[in-house]
Specification:
Blueprint (H helix, E strand, L loop, with lengths): L6 E2 L2 H34 L1 H9 L7 H21 L4 H5 L2 E5 L7 H16 L3 H8 L6 H6 L1 E5 L7
Antiparallel strand pairs: 1-3, 2-3
Helix pairs in contact: 1-2, 1-3, 3-5
Length: 157
Amino acid sequence: MDAINVTPAPLWRRVASMLYDSFLILALLFVVGFINLFIQIQIYGDEQLRQMTAEGYSLGGPFYYTTLLVLIYGFYGFFWTRNGQTLGMLAWRIKVVSEHNQLISPGQSLLRFIVAIPSLLLGGVGLAWAILDKDKRSWQDMASRSKVILLPIKAKQ
């Protein structure tokens, strides 16, 4: 990729792609939730599980929530390291690349994911940081030494 023609992705495109991806991730989380429920029913039985949940038993636990977090990272890590784009990023013509315009490594993707959590949980301030940064980088971009770029519109043939 030619460094001269690399344009940082606008913040609104990043947010739009995250919203798009959130629907896909939510569907994956529902599947895991149903699998967890099925396992719980097999262990305790339907009636006992109803009684337990009425008494305050949580269907989730540390293993379950860790599984959800790993699944979310798996989604992003897989797409970021394979072609630099999740499905939402593909739809909005943006791509995550290293500082040298190459695909990011698994280590970079993990660091990017870990830093994105507080970046978003703090009201999105880490993502909005791209407005202030001269290179339009968010906290996760800076931490992982990567950037999100806008891809050109492909010419119709």
